[in-house]
Amino acid sequence: MELTSIGKNIRKFRHALSLRLEDLAEKAGLSVNYVGALERGEKFPSLGSFILIANALEVSADLLLADVLTAGYTVKESLLAEKLDGLSVPQRNQVYTVLDALLQTIQ
């Protein structure tokens, strides 16, 4: 299992909340060294620690696991749909044009 992607997601959501590592550790009731090791992918969280971190970050578990679960692509698709909903029709069409071009180059 890819440990680093879970840690990268923890770090990403921590930064989105402008939390220092120490802040997240305190909020979750975990040690700074442990949370740091999780973010670096050196350790794998227990279920209990994972729940404490998800609650401290105020995110769902599927967001933290989106890169390691095969169903995580559904989560990413819904996040993309939410971002697209916030765009005007011309902006959305620009995104679709770029996406079409990208898909053509990788096929």
Automatic annotation (TrEMBL):
What keywords does the record list, in alphabetical order?
Answer: DNA-binding
Record GO terms (molecular function):
DNA binding; DNA-binding transcription factor activity
Which InterPro entries does this UniProt record tie to the protein? Cro/C1-type_HTH, Lambda_DNA-bd_dom_sf, TransReg_Diox_bact_type
The HTH cro/C1-type domain extends over: 10-64
Q: What does the entry list under GO cellular component?
A: cytosol
One Pfam family for this entry, by name? HTH_3
Q: Which SUPFAM superfamilies match?
A: lambda repressor-like DNA-binding domains (SSF47413)
Q: Does the keyword Nucleotide-binding apply?
A: no
Recorded hits in PANTHER family, A to Z, give: HTH-TYPE TRANSCRIPTIONAL REGULATOR (PTHR46797), METHYLPHOSPHONATE SYNTHASE (PTHR46797:SF1)
Q: What is this protein called?
A: Helix-turn-helix protein
Give the species this sequence originates from.
Allofournierella massiliensis
- Organism ancestry: Bacteria, Bacillati, Bacillota, Clostridia, Eubacteriales
